[in-house]
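Cross-posting from the chemistry board since nobody answered there.

I work mostly on the small-molecule side, so proteins are not my area. We synthesized fe (ii) ion and want a rough idea of how it might sit in this target. Sequence and SMILES are below. Is it possible to get a predicted 3D structure of the two together?
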Amino acid sequence: MPSLPDMTTPNLDALAGQALAQGGHAQVPAPDAGQPQFVEFLQRMGDNCLILGHRVSEWCGHSPALEEDIALANQALDLIGQCQLWLGLAGEVEGRGRDADALAYLRDAGAFRNLLLVELPNGDFGVTLMRQFLFDAFHIEMLRALRTSADPRVAEIAAKAEKEVAYHLERSADLVIRLGDGTDESHRRMQAALAKLWPYTGEMFLDDAVDQAMADAGVAPLPSALKAAWDRTVASVLDEATLALPADGWHHKGGKNGIHTEHLGYILAQMQFLQRAYPGAKW
Amino acid sequence: MYAQLVKSEGSKTREEMTPEEIAFQDRIDRNEKIEPKEWMPEGYRKTLIRQIGQHAHSEIVGQLPEGNWITRAPTLERKAILLAKVQDEAGHGLYLYCAAETLGVSRDELLEALHSGKMKYSSIFNYPTLTWADMGAVGWLVDGAAIMNQVPLQRTSYGPYSRAMIRICKEESFHQRQGYDIMMKMCAGTPEQKAMAQDALNRFWYPALMMFGPSDKDSVHSAQSMAWKIKMNTNDELRQKFVDQTVPQAEYLGLTVPDPDLKWNEEKGGYDFSEPDWSEFFAVIAGNGPCNAERLGARVKAWEDGAWFRDGLMAHAAKASERARAARHAAE
Ligand SMILES: [Fe+2]
Ligand SMILES: [Fe+2]
Ligand SMILES: [Fe+2]
């Protein structure tokens, strides 16, 4: 190969490390939880990261300030990295030869298991930040609990992701506070964002048979068990932001079982275009 | 080059210089770095602001053509690498705006000049990215051309600019390698992928050559900038170096450089090649490139739509410091 400059960059090293970590898991037998339910759980974790990462990455170059461009790209990068780990493990446990890319690029919308919240359109920057905050506050509790998972592979991924997500939450909470308690307009926009997103938060804490099986096997907490901590975080941040906590009303659900909003189909049409148009090509 | 057609101020003979100006030029000739607090001719300061500002604008507008493919990247790893790359470009913009600020101009003033069209960014970012192979071609050729220009600028006379260039160059080689790696994959892939790669080279070859700016004989501002070591090489020198480096890389890929007159010239130890169409270059600079309206429009929209966000943060900061003051007052 002809000479290209060969200065090392931290980014590339980190990415290479990530790729290694992705393929590097030993074949530990999955816990008694039952493989299909374990795969289902891992897809829920991975799909949340993938779809939110996609949404966040849409801001690249279009955000309100250069610092935000950088922070959002970093956040998207973290989420895509976490998605590679969760979906990589999902494919491994499933044992049908599908890797993280096959799961990301070759499933149709009905096979996606992400929460509806993360697939909602970005809206204005306030909606994006509020969605991030509401999800981060849930995500961090989930990852903290997963650090003591009976499955060491799950615990390992959670430990890595928790550090990143702690930072995501610190950032999103801080911005919600500052914008809630900023100008009249920023306050109004943040309150409107909250109203729009609130009906999509309940789904995070609904338990179903998959969750129950994971909890019984000690793999993952029941989502409902995370709600008290989430409530506390959200109430304290909104209070400091001078934003009113919405009344607990109707909540949408379906994402965890593959019944999505109309938005997901368009995300996949874009995301999967090359893999679908050129089947089998290597990129 | 990310700074093209930068208008240079001054250009005096030694006889015309004041003693201060002579002492300044002597420092530059001794390769001393000029630091923000030190005396500098007004022309030096203004030229640097134009050049660093244009360079910074190029980094941030440069997020857009590649950002265009992040959501469509064909694998998760490619997506992560592209995100990391685009994030780097935003970071480069930040270092450069900071370097420009040391010269007494604010980032907001520079952005205002970009948005009003008073300041330019590199012509290259006004070309569309139409296929995934363009992510390869941009990294390989555009970052490749940028490196060609930025490596010597690490030795530029202005301290903050030189230090920004050193940080930036560390990251640029990763950008070029990831682009070339995409090209290698495409060229080793299906016939359709290889055709995409060739098409990308066809579209980006001449625009990449234009990045170095017009030929030296038409470059009116080069001499003063070179005397000040703001510009380290002539446009033609860098373009020649770029062609000489890139042609073997294209051959290795099995791609054809879209120039029938490209030929190795044993005598000069470099390739003879066709000049780009300079009328196209000037049209793009004047705002008539295929994507000028979209690129600038996207930046202006991001800025305007984000006004409430920036105002909100400012208002909060003011409230917070007012509260802190009141609390201190109450404690006294
Ligand atoms: Fe990170
Ligand atoms: Fe750059
Ligand atoms: Fe670059």
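Reply from a structural biologist on the board:
Welcome over. Reading the output above for you: Chain B is about 65% helix and 0% strand. Chain B has a mean pLDDT of 95. Happy to explain the token format if needed.
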